[in-house]
Design brief:
Layout: E1 8-13, H1 22-30, E2 39-43, H2 46-54, E3 59-62
Antiparallel strand pairs: 1-2, 1-3
Length: 63
């Protein structure tokens, strides 16, 4: 059974993805980030962590 209390991560876009690789921009969009200083709460899964690690220079993550 799934946990009643789902772990979440708060991810904020702090640098513009303009000029970064296309795959990195796709990760930013995949995380649900559209504009600077936008914050989203995402489930703490290995896939999400991998996307965050790929674009760690563009985002700030809080557990």
């Amino acid at each position: 059974m799934a946990n009643a209390q789902q772990k979440t991560l708060r991810v904020t876009l702090v640098h513009s993805p303009i000029g970064s690789k296309e795959a990195h921009r796709a990760c930013v969009r995949g995380l649900g980030l559209r504009r600077l200083n936008q914050t989203v709460e995402l489930a703490d899964t290995p896939a999400i962590r991998g996307m965050i690690n790929r674009v760690a220079y563009l985002v700030k993550c809080e557990g």
